[in-house]
Specification:
Elements: E1 10-28, E2 34-53, E3 58-62, H1 76-88, E4 94-99, H2 110-125, H3 132-142, H4 146-151, E5 154-158, E6 163-166, E7 173-179, H5 186-197, H6 209-217, H7 220-226, E8 228-229, H8 232-238, H9 241-251, E9 256-259, E10 266-270, H10 273-286, E11 291-297, E12 303-306
Parallel strand pairs: 1-8, 3-4
Antiparallel strand pairs: 1-2, 1-12, 2-4, 2-5, 5-6, 7-10, 7-11, 9-10
The structure holds adenosine-5'-triphosphate.
Length: about 300
């Protein structure tokens, strides 16, 4: 621990959203989760989480995607802060302020991102200097996507997604994200995937070689043809309009497109920044999507951006 005099009065962590470049869904496990082989990719759409000492535990929200996020004890960032406090023996409460740019229930792991940011911010505020492994263990208990969002970048996820390993990835990819105003529930999308599969036997998931080759080459065209998401049909079945969005993006020149995670965000990969701008303008003008954002990946995981001191 750092000496109290040197500790900041608040700490702000910035955290990216994720998309899944590959999401292979295996059989449903006994604990209700599905085993996964996934490739996570952090993109430059960021939430910010600020923690500061307070008289009682609390959370408040601001920003364009604050609506629909619980401002009570169920908030994942607040749960993360309390979980770290109890693991580290910290008794002073904090207030957690979240600036939400990541859409809620968008398949971009916004809640998990806020939890990862809260862990990093509280660790800094309290001067704990926990190792990444210690934080990753707590992160895995909070949610499957939380460990990845600590580190960001591009990484393989296995288990239910919480076992994260680095992959060799080269270069920067350019994305256009088609956001929806209304989210999709992750459990409902998995249930729909199970329903569509019926009694078909599902093999244990294994990563695909063409995705690893595409990432190693840094070639956006190879990446576009390697994109795969086993939840995509289920998301389209629940929200048929997503099929039209995917088609529109390709018609307007995207190299490839995919529903992100459980949706409804659709991510399109393009050649460069100029192509991203063209596609964003075309999609917006077409009226097919409610909100369009450009982003690049990979982005860094949760990291401190401000930590003012009293003196
Ligand atoms: P994933 O891709 O991990 O399945 P998602 O991006 O589809 O998640 P989230 O934005 O993480 O979905 O939100 C899922 C639910 O989690 C929301 O409906 C909300 O009620 C709850 N939640 C709890 N805390 C948060 C938070 N800090 N930010 C967003 N949602 C939160």
């Amino acid at each position: 621990m750092t000496s109290a005099a040197a500790l900041p009065t608040s700490a702000t962590a910035r955290v990216p959203a994720k998309i899944n470049l590959e999401l292979i869904v295996g059989p449903r496990r006994e604990d209700g989760y599905h085993s996964l082989a996934t490739v996570y990719h952090a993109v430059s759409l960021f939430d910010e989480v600020t923690v500061s000492a307070a008289d009682e535990w609390g959370v408040s929200l601001e920003g364009p995607h604050a609506q629909g996020v619980p401002a009570d004890a169920t908030n994942l960032a607040l749960r993360a802060a309390r979980r770290l406090a109890s693991a580290a023996g910290v008794e002073e409460p904090v207030h957690v302020r979240i600036r939400k740019e990541i859409p809620v229930a968008g398949g971009m792991a916004g809640g998990s991102a806020d939890a990862a940011a809260a862990l990093v911010a509280c660790d800094h505020l309290w001067g704990l200097a926990s190792g990444r492994d210690e934080l990753a263990e707590i992160a895995g208990e909070l949610g499957s996507d939380v460990p990845f969002l600590l580190g960001g970048g591009t990484a393989m996820g296995s288990g239910r997604g919480e076992v994260v390993a680095p992959v060799l990835a080269r270069g920067t990819f350019h994305w256009v994200l088609a956001l929806s105003a209304c989210g999709l529930s992750t459990p409902e999308v998995y249930a729909e995937c199970d329903r569509l599969r019926g009694s078909r036997r599902v093999p244990e998931p294994t990563p695909r070689r063409d995705m690893m080759t595409a990432l190693r080459s840094g070639d956006a065209r190879a990446l576009a043809s390697a994109l795969v998401n086993d939840l995509q049909d289920a998301a389209i079945s629940l929200r048929p309009k997503l099929g039209d969005v995917l088609e529109a993006g390709i018609d307007f020149g995207a190299l490839g497109g995919i529903v992100s995670g459980s949706g409804p965000t659709v991510a399109f990969v393009v050649e460069n920044n100029e192509a991203a701008l063209d596609l964003a303008v075309s999609l917006t003008a077409s009226g097919t999507v409610q909100d369009v954002r450009r982003a690049t990946g990979p982005a860094h995981g949760a990291h401190i951006v401000a930590a003012p001191r009293a003196d």
